[in-house]
Specification:
single chain, 4 strands, 167 residues, 17% strand, four-stranded mixed beta sheet, alpha/beta
């Protein structure tokens, strides 16, 4: 399952040397775990707290920074990926899943706070965002959130076997 990852930085010099590799690895693993065999295209933007706050305010009406935002292009049911209902890139034929926005500032702080570091946190946020692009949500503390957390844990255990409890 090939992945077309378009990665951009909101500000010059913002980023991490392994960001592309980490995001691509996490997104690819999440797609495989969700049974997605089609070529998929995902766009990822790296920003800081100020940048993600502005995007969150503009698109969600929430005037605060967050760690990751997800903007799916398709309406999908969790755990039931159907490529026939998805938009595709007319040139490549890849399924257009959507966009991700990462606050690297928040990612670094959470990686330190949770004790698993920046790289683990970035992969976790990429898995989390991928699941959103595939229809998962966590709007309340109910079953949907539990299902999403269980999928995140299972995928992260495959990405980072040393941190099975941390995800």
């Amino acid at each position: 399952m090939p992945l077309k990852l378009s990665l951009s930085r909101e500000k010059r010099g913002l980023g991490h040397e392994n960001a592309r590799k980490l995001i691509a690895r996490a997104v690819s693993r999440a797609l495989v775990c969700e049974g997605v065999a089609d070529c998929c295209a995902v766009s990822a933007l790296l920003t800081d707290n100020e940048g993600i706050r502005a995007i969150n305010r503009e698109w969600r009406g929430i005037d605060s920074a967050t760690d990751v935002l997800s903007f799916p292009l398709n309406e999908l049911a969790p755990g039931a990926f159907d490529p026939d209902v998805c938009e595709r890139d007319p040139e490549t034929g890849c399924v257009l899943l959507g966009d991700m926005v990462f606050s690297l500032e928040r990612c670094a702080a959470q990686g330190e706070e949770f004790g698993h570091g920046f790289e683990h946190e970035l992969m976790y946020l990429a898995v989390h965002s991928t699941l959103h692009l595939l229809g998962y949500d966590h709007v309340d503390e109910g079953e949907m959130k539990r299902a999403m957390r269980a999928r995140e844990k299972a995928i992260m255990a495959l990405l980072d076997p040393e941190n099975k409890e941390e995800a």
